[in-house]
Specification:
Blueprint: H1 3-13, H2 26-42, H3 46-50, H4 59-84, H5 87-97, H6 105-118, H7 121-131, H8 137-148, H9 158-163, H10 171-182, H11 188-199, H12 205-212, H13 219-230, H14 236-250, H15 258-268, H16 273-312, H17 315-326, H18 331-346, H19 353-361, H20 368-381, H21 387-396, H22 400-410, H23 419-425, H24 431-451, H25 454-470, H26 477-487, H27 496-501, H28 509-521, H29 528-532, H30 540-553, H31 559-562, H32 574-585
């Protein structure tokens, strides 16, 4: 039996009992129950195909029976997905699918976004179920909005999204669903289905399909929009939606002027498919760059204004105001709230426990920028209670900036539980992540050497040596420097040869300095001899580091080598001469 079949059978065994309903009278419900019982017993979908044949029902009711069974299967699949999911997926699913009035729209939306971010089969099944849960519009809306923001759409959610573009679906639900479908802009089958929906003139949800065409860079989409704009049979609302779609597609400031749009199409329609697509992509890229700059300026202004307003408040009102920022529906505002916490901590302010705890809850926020700022704030707080949440998020995080921020945040907590995850990050293909992990291991190095078992220290040393080899590539200088930084506090004898090779003038001055420092920390007097040669290094900072190292592990026989370097004609740099004098004095 294949794994897929095994999962299906498990779902079938959990099929619920379909309750009496005015939609499904007894003459349909009895066959539904019979079919479900057969499917539970056999673990097979065959009953769905063959059982209705013996029923004394008209064709429409046979279809209704099949639909009833399919609905039961969907509910069972969603329930099974929730049961099989990790604890956080279960928590977010409970919030998203909650039918009570106790869940706020903001909390529900955030739960949907977190499920999208997980990108696991269980999370996708919950989202698919939410989209099709007709008796729960808030869950449908939250799932559709979250998927409309997803820049890595999963094909398995296409069919559930199309459910929300049907004629009987309100426009408020259809719009985010159609926008989510537009995320599949390279999928011509999705485009064809949206155009088919437009051909069906029923329902306001048709407008959502029209507007979604604006996100496609295909001539077929533009041609259909121009046709809608020119059709006298179309309503003003449909033509307005076509204008909005064309404006987004092209960036052209033609407004509702049909003549100008027709003139544009006469020129654009004559292009080849590839040239047409390239012209739209170029236009959108230019507009994106402008919008990005504007957004960055807006976030900066929000941060400045909100920060000033927050600090102008009486102390007794600041906590509630800060919690409001952290719980806001807009990611930019939540990010600003986390920035304010970090700034307050930098100025030695006391951070209330409820604010600290809210930050821990936000470690897995749906927005990457918020997650970065939350990690930085928790790093500033140095709160050990945040470590489990940070490490859990690190295990599923895909964004490089967030991974780097979490690595930096866990180091000050000084818990060895962070070491293995950090070692894993040393192999990350992103240089920023590998460097952040190296620096975190550097900060944990003394504790690791003192309290860690030999096997763990050995794994760290091996991983750092591997990173040192990989960082020979151009553009990896800072990663290489950080790897040497992390080696120093380990004081491993098996790293001595690696460190000595790093004294080569082919290495950067910082690598050479760090290698000297690491060798000195070994506390082995015999290592002073290779360090003496660094007194002739062309870089003054390296010569100074060599003199400092000799003050620590140098021997009396090195004094004759040091004495001439007190002469400014031999050593022109006064900082180096001071370090040499200290080495002699010791």
């Amino acid at each position: 039996m294949s794994p897929g079949h095994a999962n299906s059978s498990a779902n079938l065994r959990q099929l619920p009992v379909v309750s009496r309903s005015p939609i499904y009278p007894r003459k349909c419900l009895d066959p539904v129950h019979e079919m479900l019982a057969t499917m539970k017993k056999t673990g097979s979908f065959g009953a769905l195909i063959h059982a209705p044949a013996h029923l004394e029902l008209s064709a429409p009711w046979k279809i209704a029976v099949r639909l009833g069974v399919l609905l039961a299967i969907l509910l069972a699949s969603t329930a099974q997905a929730r049961q099989d999911a990790d604890p956080d997926t279960q928590r977010q699913a409970a919030i998203l699918l909650d039918r009570t009035t106790g869940t706020s729209p903001t909390a529900r939306a955030e739960a949907a976004r977190r499920l999208v971010q997980k990108r696991t089969p269980a999370a996708r099944q919950v989202l698919a179920g939410a989209l099709q849960e007709r008796g729960n519009p808030p869950a449908q809306l939250a799932a559709a909005v979250a998927l409309a923001e997803d820049d890595r759409p999963d094909p398995s959610l296409i069919d559930p999204l199309f459910v929300l573009t049907k004629p009987d679906v309100p426009l408020a639900l259809a719009r985010p669903a159609a926008r989510a479908l537009s995320r599949y802009s390279g999928n011509l089958a999705v485009l064809a289905r949206l155009i088919d929906r437009i051909e069906d003139r029923r329902g306001d949800s048709r407008r959502a399909a029209v507007e979604a065409l604006g996100y496609f860079s295909e001539k077929r989409a533009a041609e259909r929009l121009i046709a809608l704009l020119n059709s006298e049979d179309e309503s003003r609302a449909i033509r307005d939606s076509a204008v909005a779609a064309l404006t987004y597609m092209t960036g052209a400031p033609n407004g509702n002027d049909v003549g100008r749009w027709n003139a544009w199409w006469r020129q654009a329609g004559a292009m080849s498919e590839s040239d047409f697509r390239l012209s739209l992509i170029t236009s959108k890229a230019e507009r994106f760059d402008a919008a990005k700059l504007s957004n960055e300026q807006l976030v900066s202004a929000i941060r400045e204004q909100f920060g000033a307003m927050y600090r102008a408040l009486p102390p007794e009102r600041r906590t509630s105001a800060l919690l409001g920022l952290l719980g806001d529906g807009a990611p930019a505002v939540r990010a600003v709230g986390a920035m304010i916490v970090r700034e307050d901590k930098d100025f030695a302010a006391v951070i209330p426990d409820e604010v600290r705890d809210r930050l821990v809850q936000m470690v897995g926020d749906s927005d990457a920028t918020v997650r970065v700022q939350v990690a930085r704030a928790l790093g500033a707080l140095n709160y050990a209670g945040a470590l489990p949440a940070l490490l859990e998020q690190l295990s599923v995080e895909s964004n490089s900036d967030v991974k780097a921020a979490i690595a930096a945040a866990v180091a000050p907590i000084q818990e060895l539980a962070a070491v293995e995850p950090l070692v894993g990050l040393l192999g990350d293909p992103d240089a920023t992540v590998a460097r952040s992990a190296s620096l975190a291991l550097r900060d944990l190095g003394e504790k690791l050497r003192r309290d860690g078992d030999a096997a763990l220290v050995g794994r760290v040393a091996v991983a750092l040596r591997g990173l040192l080899e990989r960082s020979r590539a151009p553009g990896m200088e800072e990663v290489r420097e950080s790897a040497v930084d992390a080696m120093a506090p380990l004081r491993r004898q098996d790293l001595i040869a690696d460190l000595q090779r790093l004294l080569s003038p082919r290495e950067s001055p910082r690598v050479r300095r760090n290698a000297i420092r690491a060798l000195a920390q070994m506390g082995v007097p015999e290592l002073a001899d290779p360090i003496v040669t660094a007194l002739n290094d062309p870089d003054a900072s390296v010569r100074q580091e060599a003199a400092i190292a000799l003050a620590r592990i140098g021997r009396k026989e090195h004094i004759p080598v040091l004495l001439p370097r007190l002469d400014e004609r031999v050593e022109p740099d006064p900082s180096v001469r001071d370090a040499v004098w200290n080495a002699i004095a010791v």
